[in-house]
Amino acid sequence: MDYVDSLxxxxxxxxxxxxxxxxxxxxxxxxxxxxxxxxxxxxLGSRLFHRTTRAVSLxxxxxxxxxxxxxxLDDLDxxxxxxSVQTREASxxxxxxxxxxxxxxxxxxxxxxxxxxxxxxxxxxxxxxxxVDLVADGFDLGLVLPFMLNNDTTVTRLLERIPLALVTTPAxxxxxxxxxxxxxxxxxxxxxxxxxxxxxxxxxxKGNEEVSVVLRHEVASNNPVFNREMVLxxxxxxxxxxxxxxAELAAGKLVVLLEDYEIVNASIEIRLAYTTRTLLPAKxxxxxxxxxxxxxxxxQEPAQPEPVRSIKVKAQ
Length: 316
Prior knowledge:
Layout: H1 3-16, H2 19-26, H3 30-44, E1 49-51, E2 56-58, H4 60-88, E3 92-99, H5 107-117, E4 121-128, H6 134-137, E5 141-144, E6 155-168, H7 170-175, E7 189-192, E8 201-206, E9 209-214, E10 216-220, H8 224-232, E11 237-241, H9 242-250, E12 255-256, E13 262-263, E14 267-274, H10 282-300
Parallel strand pairs: 3-4, 3-5, 7-10, 7-11
Antiparallel strand pairs: 1-2, 5-14, 6-11, 6-12, 6-14, 8-9, 8-13
Helix pairs in contact: 1-2, 1-3, 1-4, 2-3
């Protein structure tokens, strides 16, 4: 029996003035109560009770010890109650880290709807594009890309796949040989993710044939918005999320290349990350459920047709 249980039994004996009634209150036998009190007396080096066949009375040491014991046990019960409420009811501060650009179109409506559903939860949101360690950095959850996680024990759940498009400016096409096949891309310069985050290589598929192309680049960054702007400035071809180039494609500022070829694994995964599957605080469980339902609803929304300019030339 641990020390806290010993204190609880001591308190019951004092208030019931009986070892037997205290035993009944805790669902143990009277000898167990006697041994517990004896161990407590040995630990304190002081006798706590005077016992006769008819009554139990407190020593002076027990009277002093009882007051402090009650304060400790009452504080402990309050702490346990608060922790239990946090486990049952979503409340407190939820610390969330999210990829800056990959979640930009989703994050505000997601957080807004979650906050309305769970008003007792406060949110501390950090936007970044660097790798994170949820535990070491003190985050409850992450809306991240796979490369951002540097802990193999992190639990993740796929929320969305964002398709990528191979795009460039009409001016780049006019000034450089038009790529008719994936192999032709070897003659072009790209704006890419850094090699440390994503291998500078694309694999294309047409029918049963697959072709891999190493991408030559002079500009690389981990920020898709920056990469889009560099492509618009005429620094080559970009592999960019379609959600970031829809307006530019519609306005004719960018064009799609090699649409007859499928880019293998041409998507960015948005994943919900958390540290464990068990004993989750209510605020964390609530956000997991809310985010999952939110992204499921997003995936069911009918796609709105957008006018897209592309360059499609059949390979000879």
